[in-house]
Amino acid sequence: MAKIQLEHVEKYFGDVHVVKDLNLAIEDGSFTVLVGPSGCGKTTTLRLIAGLETITSGRIVIGDRDVTALEPKDRNVAMVFQNYALYPHMTVADNIAFGLMARKTPQDEIERRVHRAASMLDIESLLKRKPKQLSGGQQQRVAIGRAIVRNPNVFLFDEPLSNLDAKLRVEMRTELLKLHRELEATVVYVTHDQEEAMTMGDRIVIMDGGVIQQVGTPREIYFHPRHRFVAGFIGSPAMNMIEGRLEDGEFISSHFRIPLDGPAFEGDVILGIRPEDIYLPGSLPAERETPVLTAKVEVIELLGARAIVPLLVNDLSMRAVIDERHLEQVQEGGSMSIVFDRNRLHLFDAANGERIE
Ligand SMILES: Nc1ncnc2c1ncn2[C@@H]1O[C@H](COP(=O)(O)OP(=O)(O)OP(=O)(O)O)[C@@H](O)[C@H]1O
Ligand SMILES: [Mg+2]
């Protein structure tokens, strides 16, 4: 186990600035998820920690060691890649043992570690097979097994589940979390899937354009996004964002007005409201409901227990998520009354996207 510190880390590829003054302290034994849109610098950041890329400037510390100038093999870090990178001509057992053989580990020690990893991953019966005789999920386990046998201080996972089908992905999430607990290792896990980030991370780091936008627990990130980008990126269906201005204790948009006492801010803002924080009037304690708005109901998407209800409030498109039990009050093509939960409104400065308290 080891903590990881990134201090003022910069990375340029030629003159492309990919990672920008990254500062991050990853706690010993934590499961930290790096999440952000494609191209935001997640893989590059992992590769910098692993030593597979050299940093342009800054410092990386793993445990108590400054590893900035160390080779990957001297960092005691194991990385699991999205494409597994298994050797097709070698058996599962040899694939798992490969790194140990390269280090001239004694044969009986190799066998002991391979069997321990295979048993943790439940792939003991597959050890004699070749990778092409395995399913995607099994290949992924082999790739993880190869990381485990090295007893690293730090595991780096780069989108390890993205090649698996939806059901297997959910199963493997649970498996990986169990494994994390068993191994008591520090894990840095990259994904662009915000649901994976929310369910797996004990801390989430949201990146955009090579910059960290927010670091927090899943709850902090979801209920208290510090930036408009974070608010829009996390949550599905996405948060509704309404442009307007704050003036004399009122949010004023071209679509509707809501009295809002609290924020001292005056000027252009974006009001954010998550689809599940929109209700039929009378569902919440009165003091939490905003004034009633009338909305036109478009085509309802039933998910099962809940439904996504696209709405038009004047000419503003919004989405609400409504409990299936209340759907009888909602008709496609008809109109419905809605309120927002005051405790769940988010306000962002339109000029820089930052949260307004
Ligand atoms: N070797 C390289 N040379 C030049 N540019 C690179 C190189 N590797 C990555 N980049 C660029 O750096 C940026 C960040 O890439 P990176 O692979 O870290 O993104 P990512 O967040 O992992 O994205 P994805 O979700 O698509 O995997 C991208 O704009 C990419 O084009
Ligand atoms: Mg990537």
Describe this structure in words.
- 24% of the residues lie in helices and 33% in strands.
- The protein has 357 residues and is of the alpha+beta class.
- It folds into 2 domains: 4-232, Rossmann fold, CATH 3.40.50; 237-349, RNA polymerase II/Efflux pump adaptor protein, barrel-sandwich hybrid domain (OB fold (Dihydrolipoamide Acetyltransferase, E2P), Beta Barrel), CATH 2.40.50.
- The strands form 4 sheets. It has a 6-stranded mixed β-sheet, sandwiched between helices. Strands 15, 16, 17, 18, 19 and 20 form a 6-stranded antiparallel β-sheet that branches. Strands 13-12-11-14-21 form a 5-stranded antiparallel β-sheet.
- A hairpin with a 2-residue loop joins strand 11 and strand 12 (250-252).
- It is elongated.
- The model has no long low-confidence stretch (mean pLDDT 93).
- Residues 13, 16, 18, 36, 38-44, 192 line the site of adenosine-5'-triphosphate.
Please provide a brief summary of the model:
By secondary structure, this protein is of the alpha+beta class.
Order the strands across the largest sheet as they lie in space: 6-7-8-3-9-10
Spans of 5+ residues with little confidence (pLDDT < 50)?
A: none
CATH superfamily of the largest domain: P-loop containing nucleotide triphosphate hydrolases
CATH class of the largest domain: Alpha Beta
Domains, number: 2
What's the order of the H and E elements?
EEEHEEEHHHEHEHEEHHEEEEEEEEEEE
| Fold-level CATH name of the largest domain | Rossmann fold
Strand content: 25-35%
Task: Tell me the CATH architecture of the largest domain.
Answer: 3-Layer(aba) Sandwich
Terminal-residue CA separation:
38 Å
Based on secondary structure, the structural category is alpha+beta
In total, how many beta strands?
21
For the sheet with most strands, the description reads: 6 strands, mixed
Share of residues in helices: 10-25%
